[in-house]
Structures are given as C-alpha cells and as structure tokens.
Design brief:
With 337 residues, the chain is α/β, with parallel strands linked by helices. A hairpin with a 6-residue loop joins strand 1 and strand 2. The two termini are 35 Å apart. The mean pLDDT is 91.
Length: 337
C-alpha cells in the first residue's frame, strides 16, 4: 500500500492517522516481514489488521549464488503463489546496485535472453518488486544505493505497478533512493515510453537497442516488427526533451551478427545526434542459442569506432560470470530441476 492508501485504511479502522506513517516506515525503512516486529504499534491494531486479512507479500529466498570472481550475488525468490523470480546484487566502488525482475517470465521473445524461453506468466505487484530489494538488504546486511529494473520481464508491460514502485522506492518515508539512481530498461514499447516521458520522472531510461538496422533488430527482437527502429528512437528523443535525462542504449554484442565496422557506422548515423550513452554488453551465451561473444579486440574496435564519432560509450563490466549471471538463467535451471 502507498502512504495514502494506508492513511485511508487507518481511518476506516478508526485509528489515528499517524499509525499509517509508523506502519509504512516499519515496512519500507526497517524492512520488517511481520506485524509482530512493529514494536510501537498497539497489539489491538495488529490484531485488527490480521483479522481483516492484511498480509505481507514477502518473497522467500530459495537459493543464493555468490561469485568467487567479484562478490556478485544472485538470488532466487519464491513468491506467495510458488512462482520464482531472480534478482542480482552487484558491488561497485560507488555503492551497491540491485537488478530486479518486474514480471514472472517475459513475453517479448528476445532471442539472446533466457528470461523469455518459458513465456510470460504474470506481472509482479509493486510490493513484490520492492521486496526483492528489501530482502537483499536484510540478507546482505548492506545498503542498496542503485536499482536497475532490468531482470526478468518487460517493465513497461507492467506500467502501473512500475510507477507505484518508483514513487515508493524514492519516497523519503521509505528507502529514499534518488530517482537519478533508478534505471528502467525497455525493449521499446513506444506508447509507454511516451507515457513515461509525461511523468517527468528523473529516472534513467535504458533502451535495449541491440542492432544498427531495422532488419537486424527484427532478427533479434520480435517487438521490432511492431515498433520500427526510427519510431523507437524518436520516442527516446521525446523522453530526453520532456525530462532532460540522457537515454542509455543497451547493445549486446553478438559475434558475426551486430559487431562489424558497418554496424558501428550505421549506429552512429542512427543516434549520433542524440544526448545518449551506449552500453556495450558482450553477450552472455545461453545453451539454447548459438550466440557467441566477439573477441576482446573486436569489442575494443567497435567501441573505438563509436568514440571516434563522438558517441559516449562504455563496455559493461561482466559481473557474476561464474554464477549464471545472465537474466533468467538461474530461474530456468531451478525450474528444470
């Protein structure tokens, strides 16, 4: 529940309004998992809430993998209906970043991604999205400072819950993570990008671009057949115009598919006029596909070609390579078992 919804509930239960603030802070600042942990909330109110059927949507951690290479942790959570989703804790010098899931499965069908192999089952509630972060904070004992909605699922396909999640995560009554430290990734749902732009949030929008032409994007991403590449990029330009926030482009480099010098030249022609950042991601191979990473030399050549054309570009540091680091891998293995 949002603070406003909790306030309405307290009024319905004939309780003072300040109880809403107490309960909200217990859940979203202290990250408690039961009414019993709320030491300054009267027993009578706890009993009222329990009797009325109010519960906590706290996911259960069923598996944690920790990388021996860089300390990255991958979590598998079981939800109240026994579905599973995964999240990742990545540790950087500038702080801890958590990548969370927004749906159980995914319907977008991107060919290099394990998240979509078993299809889509349902959306996550805003509470289920928040709780991934809260439970990771509790398990790790460390503060989370950056959040990326880039795990399983297409966030903009779960638009209303995503918006509620962003507002609650950045609310000073909760974890109060700055919107500038929240990134939302999308494969390019144009109407929702335009809708999000009108919200005037200060989050970073990351577009999964992954191709330098319409033809190649259609090969890798079925959504490209619905929203043409120039239409998607125009929506990103609108997002920048409305929010002033630089757009980030995710570009998974696949050897022999989208990593040539011609690809780099076409990419420059597509986005060279934009205030943007390109995040090059050497593709994380999955056994169901034949995609392979380009070699280091080819990746550097691609980066240099873009930089020489004035495009801001980085190569994403690979995290958790030894623990099924790519989206959907851990969940898929668990389901197969």
């Amino acid at each position: 529940m949002t603070p406003e919804q909790l306030t309405v509930l307290m009024k319905e239960l004939n309780e003072p309004a300040f109880r809403a603030k107490q309960i909200y802070e217990w859940i979203h600042k202290q990250c408690v998992s039961s009414f019993e942990e709320m030491s300054n909330v009267p027993k009578k109110l706890k009993e009222k809430l329990t009797a009325a059927g109010y519960t906590f949507c706290v996911p259960k951690i069923v598996e944690v993998q920790e990388s021996k290479l860089d300390g990255t942790k991958k979590y598998l959570f079981e939800l109240s209906d026994h579905q599973v989703v995964e999240s990742v804790l990545m540790k950087y010098k500038h702080g801890n970043s958590v990548c969370i899931s927004s749906q159980v499965g995914c319907k977008m069908g991107c060919r290099f991604c394990a998240s979509t192999l078993d299809g889509w089952l349902r959306n996550l509630s805003n509470g289920e999205m928040l709780q991934q972060i809260y439970q990771i904070q509790k398990e790790s004992g460390e503060r989370v400072s950056n959040v990326v909605v880039m795990g399983t699922g297409e966030p903009l396909d779960n638009y209303d819950n995503l918006l509620a999640f962003i507002h609650m995560l950045s609310d000073e009554k909760g974890l109060h993570i700055s919107q500038r430290n929240i990134t939302v990734s999308t494969c390019g749902l144009v109407p929702k990008i335009l809708e999000l732009a009108e919200e005037r949030l200060q989050i970073t929008l990351a577009l999964s671009l992954h191709a330098s032409s319409q033809e190649k994007r259609e090969e890798l991403m079925p959504i490209a057949k619905t929203y043409e590449i120039h239409e998607v990029l125009d929506a990103c330009r609108t997002y920048f115009d409305k929010t002033g926030r630089r757009v980030s482009f995710e570009y998974s480099l696949v050897a022999g598919v989208n990593d040539s010098e011609e690809d780099a030249a076409r990419l420059k022609a597509l986005i060279g006029d934009m205030n943007c950042h390109v995040n090059l991601i050497p593709v994380n191979p999955i056994k169901e596909r034949s995609f392979k990473q380009p070699d280091r030399e080819n990746i550097r050549r691609f980066q240099n070609k873009l930089e020489n054309n004035g495009i801001n570009v980085t190569i994403r540091r690979e995290m958790g390579r030894d623990i099924d680091g790519a989206c959907g891998q851990l969940r898929k293995k668990y389901m197969e078992r």
